[in-house]
Amino acid sequence: MIDLYYAPTPNGHKITLFLEEAELDYRIIRVDISKGDQFRPVFLAISPNNKIPAIIDNLPSDGGKPLSLFESGEILLYLAEKTGKLLSGELRERHHTLQWLFWQSSGLGPMLGQNHHFTAYAPQTIPYAIERYQVETQRLYGVLNRRLEKSPWLGGEHYSIADIACWPWINTHERHRIDLATYPAVNNWFERIRTRPATERAMQKIHQI
């Protein structure tokens, strides 16, 4: 059983997407970031960076005590290795998958997050910041589109944790003022993931907590 400390954000959705695809038993523990749950000592003991998601694997494969992890990219990698799913064992596809996973963690997520912050949440309008992150958002969508013009999935021939990591951020494309029709390969990839049964189940969790 996996305990998932979750809020309905792109990073939270990454983990429910994986858990539904892998058909793992899990329990959602809601972290209400609007009320400051992420700063409570019980959560900080699991996620010292006070960010969701985090997990506790109550049955780790080494047979030891429960294992807690934070950082969505690491959680995806851990779960893929635990289950043998959604991460190829073939050398090239495995490492192509990991490079796109790290690309999402270091680039796509942070930059799109800043875009949304300065357009929706900043207490004052800062035109320079809005333009800077919009230009970078468009560049990153272009990077993604060029990859998907050449490959059906980010890692290669198979759906993987790289696709799972990126999709929830692209799901918020309207917040980024992005028209997916401008990026046809991304749009095709987006729709193929959106209509997967596991994706539909994962996104329903928003309404069940």
Quick recap:
This is GSH-dependent disulfide bond oxidoreductase. The chain is an alpha+beta fold.
Largest sheet: 4 strands, mixed
* Bulk shape: globular
Gyration radius over CA: 17 Å
- Class from secondary-structure proportions: alpha+beta
- Give unreliable regions as ranges: none
Give the end-to-end Cα distance, rounded to a whole number of Å: 18 Å
CATH class bucket of the largest domain = Mainly Alpha
> Main sheet: which strands, in order across?
2-1-3-4
Count of domains: 2
Roughly what percent helix?
40-55%
* SS element count, helices: 8
What do the pLDDT scores average to? 96
Number of strands: 4
Q: Which band does the percent of strand residues land in?
A: 5-15%
Question: What are the SSEs and their pairings?
Answer:
Blueprint: E1 2-6, H1 10-22, E2 26-30, H2 41-44, E3 54-57, E4 67-70, H3 72-83, H4 91-121, H5 127-150, H6 161-170, H7 184-194, H8 197-204
Helix pairs in contact: 1-3, 1-6, 1-8, 4-5, 4-6, 5-7
Domain GST N-terminal: 1-87
Domain GST C-terminal: 90-209
Family: Belongs to the GST superfamily.
